[in-house]
Amino acid sequence: MNRPALIPLAGWLRCPLCGRDLDEDSTAFICSSGHRFELNRRGYLGLLAPDATTRRESTREVEERTARWSTSDSTATVEAAVAMMPPGRPRVLDVGSDLGTTLAAIAHARDDLSALSVGDSPNSLVRAMATARAPAVLCDLIRELPIRDGSAEVLLAIGAPHRPTEWHRVLARGGIVIASASGSAAEALLDDVYPWFEHDQTREVGDSSALRLRRRRRPISW
Ligand SMILES: [Zn+2]
Question: What is the distance in A from the centroid of ligand 1 to the CA of 12?
Fold first, then answer.
């Protein structure tokens, strides 16, 4: 099996047990407390506390979701999201549920993109890795992500649960979120993220929208 090199993960990760930065040696990722994590045999890195929650999606469920992301409506949403990318080669963190579809479309247009997918379903992550050819981390999405503060410049949240405090934390100053929503869910998304992000752009695609949100330097209080 082709495993992604360890190097592309450098600078992204922190320990899920103690919160300290993770650095890689030749075979594993280690924090200064001595916690050690190795790549799974399927190619992703599991960064999980002992009581972490993950999801066991069946291969069939992943296939069904993949098919949904292959429809023309979904393709149009992905194209709208890609059009919202800033220029250059920003560091992209993908927390979405589109199985790497949008990230693959972005990576196709930009060589040497530094990108990382995170998710809580092993089978989905393996599919996302194959689609987007980016490394992936298995983690508990309900808790703080094992991602360093300010390490991403773009956060892809296509079909992702709303985690505005975490999105704000892992994004660097000036960072953006690219998200999607169906129908009235776009308003709910904007309400949820309001203290942490300002609305920057919406592109409507049929019944769905792609939205771009700009990180506020400081969250505002209600
Ligand atoms: Zn640690």
Answer: 14
Overall residue count recorded for the chain in this entry: 222
Determine the Cα–Cα distance for residues 123 and 126; give it in Å rounded to an integer.
Answer: 5
Residue pLDDT, tens place only, 117-149: 999 999 999 999 999 999 999 999 999 999 999
- Ligand 1 centroid – CA 89 distance (Å): 30
Number of neighbours of residue 26 by Cβ within 10 angstroms: 5
The pLDDT assigned to 222 comes to: 61
CA 25 to ligand 1 center in whole angstroms: 15
Q: Give pTM, 2 decimals.
A: 0.94
Cα(214) to centroid of ligand 1, in Å?
A: 31
The CATH number fitting domain 43-215, selected from 3.60.15.10, 3.40.50.150, 1.10.10.60, 1.10.150.20: 3.40.50.150
CA distance 101 to 78: 7
7 pLDDT band (50/70/90 cuts)?
A: low
Q: Where are the domains of the chain?
A: 43-215
In the block, tokens 């919202």 appear at 84
> Cα(217) to centroid of ligand 1, in Å?
29
